[in-house]
Specification:
globular, 4-stranded parallel sheet, 12 strands, alpha/beta, 13% strand, 10 helices, Rossmann fold, binds ligand G4F, UDP-galactose 4-epimerase, domain 1
Length: 316
């Protein structure tokens, strides 16, 4: 198994090392077509999973063009790399042993939702440069499947979390905030819109769904989520309660964290994945939040060095 990293002496690699076992690392950049072709030639993969993106929604307003290039055009470049290395063209379709491609599409594509819950046929109405870029990635994956007969699929994944989640996303921001307050390292937690609703699941369950999609007979897109929606307020309330804290004493609303255009409600209809992939999430919301709070209590209260604590720049 191989991982693709970009940049010279990428500082993330040494931090990744202890989590990835014997996964080998090669270089390439979603902004650089030639580097992706070289990487695919070097590795000769059976499967390619494209999870690379600028994935933090607020950053996509600050760096809209870069988001379009990485999160959107990066998908096209990866598909092209696979197509070129496989020798596929409009007149030469891939053989049976073709490289299979997974694209990480996002429930952010549903944006201002047209129906609830959202399934594979729900129309898209993205609300951020990130959502727009992901929608391009989704359609170009579908187009390469239809144009060249490639085994290219998109998983439309709803929010998926774990103790490894970046500190900028709300679940981890809350679990770290609870741990800091519980340990006397902070006195408040500043948040934005508590009314937004999300369908939160466990990342490990969703990674399993990705592999199942590529193991199917035929390439198809799937919605992956739990089918239950909760507000940010529900998340905050439960996370503080797991540490015996009353959230209303510590949470401060701060307009700095509200978005120019919000996605108010996401809720998956994962019926197709359930029936065709036989996929079911195994970790529920309460277990997930408890896992994250306990992990951050261990991280901040234990013997880890302070520089292992995720940084929180001012705008997160
Ligand atoms: O945790 P979030 O930043 O995730 P968001 O925007 O839903 O996106 C995540 O899930 C997508 C799948 O649906 C992925 F495609 C994407 O890459 C990413 O993984 O925010 C969740 C909600 C938002 O409504 C936000 O307004 O929480 C609300 N929120 C309220 N206060 C906050 C905060 N979000 C953050 N990050 N920080 C806050 O202080």
């Amino acid at each position: 198994m191989w991982g693709l990293v970009r940049g010279q002496a990428n500082p993330h690699v040494s931090r990744l090392r202890k989590h990835i076992g014997d996964v080998r690392i090669t270089t390439g950049d979603l902004l650089d077509q030639g580097s992706l072709i070289s990487a695919v030639e070097r590795v000769q993969p059976d499967e390619v999973y494209n999870l690379g993106a600028i994935s933090y929604v607020p950053m996509s307003w600050q760096q809209a063009e870069l988001t379009a290039e990485v999160t959107g055009m990066g998908v096209l470049r990866m598909l092209e790399a696979i197509r070129v290395v496989s020798g596929v063209s409009a007149s030469r379709t891939p053989g049976r042993e073709q490289i299979r491609f997974y694209q990480a599409s996002s429930s952010e594509m549903f944006g201002m939702v047209r129906e609830t819950p959202q399934n594979e046929k729900t129309p898209f109405h993205p609300r951020s440069p990130y959502g727009v870029a992901k929608t391009y990635g989704h359609y170009i994956t579908q187009n390469y499947r239809e144009s060249y007969g490639m085994f290219a699929v998109s998983g439309i994944l709803f929010n998926h979390e774990s103790p490894r989640r970046g500190a900028e996303f709300v679940t981890r921001k809350v679990s770290l905030g609870v741990a800091r307050i519980k340990l006397g390292l902070a006195t408040e937690l500043r948040l934005g819109n508590l009314d937004a609703r999300r369908d939160w699941g466990f990342a490990g369950d969703y990674a399993r769904a990705m592999r199942m999609m590529l193991a199917q007979e035929s390439p198809e897109d799937y919605v992956i989520g739990t089918g239950r929606t909760r507000s940010v307020r529900d998340l905050v309330e439960f996370a503080f309660r797991t540490a015996d804290l009353d959230w209303e004493r510590y949470v401060v609303l701060d307009g700095k964290y509200t978005r120019p255009a919000e996605v108010d409600l996401l809720c998956a209809d994962p019926k197709k994945a359930r029936e065709q992939l036989r996929w079911e999430p195994e970790v529920g919301f309460e277990e997930l939040v408890t896992m994250m709070v306990e992990s951050d209590l261990r991280l901040l209260g234990g013997s880890r060095r302070p520089d292992e604590e995720p940084a929180s720049p001012d705008h997160w």
